[in-house]
Amino acid sequence: MQYVESQHRITIRDAEKLITIVLRPTIKNRLSQLVEQGLLARYGKGRGTWYSKPVKQRRMVDAF
To answer: Is-contact 4 40, C-beta < 8 A?
Structure first.
């Protein structure tokens, strides 16, 4: 989540570079869990998929 805070988005490839001890399917599953919990939003499909904070949360953070 710190990476998303600073870069405003993350891809599975970005996460693979940051988290080298976890396999790609596990990273994909965890990102999907974060989407289900409403902590991240998924944009795009396939190779172009990226994740960021949902628009509602970003607006609240930008206000401060």
So the answer is: yes
